[in-house]
Sequence to fold (198 residues):
Amino acid sequence: MRNILILFAHPVFHKSIINRALLDAVRGLENVTINELYENYPDFFIDVEKEKKLLQEHDVIVWHHPFYWYSAPAIIKEWMDLVLQHGFAYGRNGFALQGKWAMSAVSTGGRQEVYTATGANHFSVNQFLAPFNQSATLCRMRYLPPFVTHGAHTITRAEIERQAAHYRELITGLRDGKYTEKDFENIEYSNHLTLTNA
Fold:
């Protein structure tokens, strides 16, 4: 059984119906740790040694956050800048994260069709998430396709509940070893793994 670490960041969490539903769907699961960064570090003074220990204790790392300006809320960048240190996470002697899996779980205001070459945002979600992909790769981790919930401003309650159920299925599947690296090949989003089994 794998240990899952969800690094959650939402500066106005109380306003997010989608992210509350997603987080509630996995809260309390065995071997799943939810690390709420804004809750734990409202002053941005991140306990680097504590965070490094958490990383070492878990096998799958999930950056869970809303899509802010085609990236992540500020505390995610602060966390990466401080915690993913040379000699720990990367570099000649930085092997602490080698072999772990990493992925992003994001919510967007825009529908999926606006994240295309011909859409209003001109690029796909995966293209915008390239820095996360490359950061994981530099740290010798395997970056998985993201779990994406589109259309935060127009999504229905039924769709929110459906997405939450898929998120729980994905997280428990990762925990229980249901998926291999091959399962994630040639898919745009990790949602597609659970959707095919729905």
In short: The longest strand covers residues 60-66. The mean pLDDT is 93. The first helix runs from residue 17 to 26. Strands lie at 4-8, 32-36, 60-66, 101-107, 142-143, 147-149.
